[in-house]
């Protein structure tokens, strides 16, 4: 799929030197029309070096800020380099790049600014249990009401956004725990951006170990509730209205993408 849009895949990475080369090779083989940016999130291993050796652009943070901090830097890179689409993909191999065209096609319909790759929407057999499942189900119900669409996986880190939302996220992106998933989605929806989802299957990670235990699940449930509450009551910066739906900036960005798609269809 190469419809004229400039696509950047952002991979936040913290000590991912073992699995990152194979992940990048797979992306390059399946998606030769995209660029990749590895955001080295204060790694203490050779994450940045192996990413450069694999042919990816690299941005480095001096300290570990978490996924939110890494993605904020990634969106600023995408905005400054004029990309039309930014896609977040985990560096541990869990996200299958074969689903990227589905995310791009959903964005191309024009009725979505943010597309979530949902693990519980029909594809694959990914499962969670106990308090973690309760938290994710509750979040899906609440965020479905906020975004006015059915969402089944609001904590998925496999997501794509268009140029208007890149402009928005380059200026505002929460870095707190779960800010990269829950709060960013709530902030985007409250500002008028449209959220949709497509089904994806989740793979087993190639490196590292999942953090799953009853105690950690209860902690996750509590923290997820607090993050959602904070997202609902926190005031959005007024200056972001200049980039939200209905603004001249938003309309210009959407028009630019539509014109590019039109030119590519004419060539075809």
TrEMBL record:
> Its Gene Ontology molecular function terms?
transferase activity
Q: Which UniProt keywords apply?
A: Transferase
Ranges for the region named Disordered are: 245-268
Q: Where's the Glycosyltransferase 2-like domain?
A: 9-166
Q: Which Pfam families match?
A: Glycos_transf_2
- Stretches of Basic and acidic residues bias are at 252-268
Record keyword Transferase present: yes
Q: Any stretches that span the bilayer, and where are they?
A: none
What the record says about family reads: Belongs to the glycosyltransferase 2 family.
Which named protein is this?
Answer: Glycosyl transferase family 2
